[in-house]
């Protein structure tokens, strides 16, 4: 039985990655769930893997489900496909896309193949975490639920007092200049 070790990079920053070890007979669905767990993402959105090459070209698709879009070739389904069946060489690569609206892209490469199974582990397993992963939904999840409460209590829109676009002169400043000139003239008349 082969043990496959993959490095899963965030496409935008290759210093952020997770190493995940799977058994060759496990499904892409199990791999998908582990990637999301490793990057602390929820499982609410669509996802797909593409078999890839050294140039990260997208090849055969292995999808969570069949989506409403035009396919050149019907995708394989994650639950039906074992990881070992899609390994064509010892440096196999995959592209993984999660949430088709946000387009989270992960680059996956096989970095080790062995036969040493650790029977104390429950595969797939995350063996290494490097870098701070992205926040799936932006700053709201970075600061937790308390930030959402603050955001709702205060008007943080641009029309709120004190907010303007960067480099934008405020209308008040023009009036302030006129009134400063008037005050200066009045002071000079008193002298």
Describe this structure in words.
The chain has 191 residues and is of the alpha+beta class. A hairpin with an 8-residue loop joins strand 3 and strand 4. The longest helix has 20 residues. It is globular and about 40 Å long.
Q: Give the CATH class of the domain at 3-135.
A: Alpha Beta
- One letter per element, helices H and strands E, the order comes to EEHEEEEEEHHH
Structural class determined from secondary elements: alpha+beta
What average pLDDT do the residues reach? 81
CATH topology term of the domain at 3-135: Structural Genomics Hypothetical 15.5 Kd Protein In mrcA-pckA Intergenic Region, Chain A
Portion in strands: 25-35%
Number of strands: 8
Describe the main β-sheet briefly: 8 strands, mixed
The CATH architecture of the domain at 3-135: Roll
**Which of globular, elongated, flat, extended, rod-shaped describes the shape?**
globular
| Order of the strands making up the biggest sheet | 5-4-3-6-7-1-2-8
CA(first)-CA(last) distance: 99 Å
Tally of helical segments: 4
Radius of gyration: 27 Å
How helix-rich are the residues, as a percent range? 10-25%
Task: Determine the CATH superfamily of the domain at 3-135.
Answer: MM3350-like
Low-confidence stretches: 140-154, 169-179
């Amino acid at each position: 039985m082969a043990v496959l070790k993959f490095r899963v990079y965030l496409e935008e920053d290759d210093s952020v990655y997770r190493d995940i070890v799977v058994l060759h007979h496990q499904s892409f669905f199990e791999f998908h769930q582990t990637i999301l767990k490793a990057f602390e993402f929820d499982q609410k959105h669509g996802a797909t893997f593409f078999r890839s090459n050294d140039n990260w070209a997208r090849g055969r698709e292995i999808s969570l489900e069949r989506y409403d879009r035009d396919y050149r070739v019907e995708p394989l389904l994650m639950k039906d496909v074992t990881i070992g069946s899609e390994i064509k060489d010892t440096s196999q690569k995959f592209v993984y896309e999660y949430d088709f609206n946000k387009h989270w892209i992960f680059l996956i490469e096989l970095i080790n193949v062995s036969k040493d199974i650790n029977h104390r582990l429950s595969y797939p397993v995350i063996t290494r975490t490097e870098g701070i992963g992205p926040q799936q939904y932006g700053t709201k999840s970075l600061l937790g639920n308390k930030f959402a409460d603050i955001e709702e209590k205060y008007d943080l829109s641009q029309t709120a007092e004190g907010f303007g676009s960067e480099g934008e002169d405020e209308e008040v400043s023009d009036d302030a200049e006129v009134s400063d000139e008037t005050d200066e003239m009045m002071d000079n008349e008193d002298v």
